[in-house]
Amino acid sequence: MTLLVDLAVSDRRIHSGGWRTPAQAGDIEDLEPATGRVLATVGLATAEDVDHAVTLATAAQSAWAATAPAERATVLRRAALVLEEHSAEVVEWLVREGGAIRPKAEHEVRSALDELWAAAFLPTLPHGELLPDTPERRSIGRRIPLGVVGVISPWNFPLLLAMRALAPALALGNAVVLKPDPHTPVSGGHVIAALFERAGLPDGLLHVLPGDAGPGRALTVHPDIAMIAFTGSTAVGREVGAAAGGALKRVSLELGGNNAYIVLDDADLDAAASAGAWGSFFHQGQVCMAAGRHIVLASVADAYIDKLVRQAEAMTVGDPWTSDAVLGPLINESQLAKVSENIRATVAAGARIRTGGTCAGLFHRPTVLTGVTPSMPAFTEEIFGPVAPVVVVADEEEAVAVANRTAYGLVAAVRTGSVERGLALADRLATGIVHINGQTIDDNAHVPFGGRGASGNGSRHGARQSQEEYTQWQWLTVRSAALPQPF
Ligand code: NAD
Fold first, then answer.
1. N or C terminus of the chain with fewer C-beta within 10 Å?
2. Is the pTM above the cut of 0.90?
């Protein structure tokens, strides 16, 4: 079987009207965080490449929108089949380039497949309404494509987070310019370009331009980009939202989180500690849905903390490609520095490290912080590292108040022996997603997913929601005979 990503072809190139050298001929070494080895050399796009891509995408889009729905659906289904066929290769890229453990990488490939299958359903959905009118005129409200959609994606789930935006956008007749993060240009970029190339997506409809903030900004303000689908940090999301707003384009913002994991006094504590450890340490905590604040009722706090610490201490950390470690490396030095500084400042403010707090290179031990209060950095900031801050509260009232004491609003989870109690709490939690007796990290292609406040603008993924997101209304009226006008 030939490889999906042929490094001899993609070397130092971007994918825009085929593989080509970027306008400024810039490139970057794609590093394996666990070893520091160079995995590939990747072309870096600039604003000039964005402009070129948008021109090609605009030219190709209207013919694509006019393509039979079944034909568009077939391209999405073929892309899924190609991904399935090459899943082992894609898993390897996710593990080695992104520092993911193998189960995380496999899960990400399965989720990307779900996105493709769900998107393949979109072209054949009803896309309009017949509106009441006089007998002489037909009046129709119909959803039509937006045009060219810009997708800007992060490095933590590079394949999935690009796919969940671009697959529905393409399925619904748009063209896409994708700007993946330069830390994961292959698993979040080249893999996707190669998948759709093999699936027979017509030329000009998908451009993959790895790069930093420069091409991201160029995409955001480009007058021929109709919408930006951005997934990333809240700070950059604000900038993207402001720029896209100024350019009067639609913007979907999927941003950071600082998610509450509430443990009530009637919870099964073994199960709660196991799920809590998963919520905080999965993919080294580099997940927008990570359990960022364990909010625990005082009567069970000591027992819960002991169990959480035992979970953390049992976890192995190491190279995810050559070992069965449960945690891999952080993505880079700058992420490590942010995590270390957050722990340092939180301890300086009076918290205690119950376990962890150390690192070897980019490998950071899972860390449990106790005595955390709402004024400390581990409470106020999204850490994006393997850290579980524990806040002890007196009762349910205080748990709700503390959980809502954040500008973020992505996910909350409640552990309790009583579903009724959990449901009552869910009504009072200001988040886009609530799980009762689950943990905070969960997503499916068919569910409404999104955050409030600093976590995003409430945009939604999932089949019908994607149809709304990546199309717009047009009112169309039709008369068979012209109506005589008074003048
Ligand atoms: P980031 O905001 O630094 O980067 C995200 C993307 O934006 C990258 O492609 C980056 O190159 C690009 N970018 C940077 N500056 C830009 C600018 N000025 N204009 C346009 N594009 C720009 O985020 P990150 O560090 O890569 O990812 C981690 C963050 O993403 C965390 O805060 C995490 O919570 C969030 N995230 C959110 C979700 C979600 O669904 N809500 C999912 C995953 C990650």
1. C
2. yes
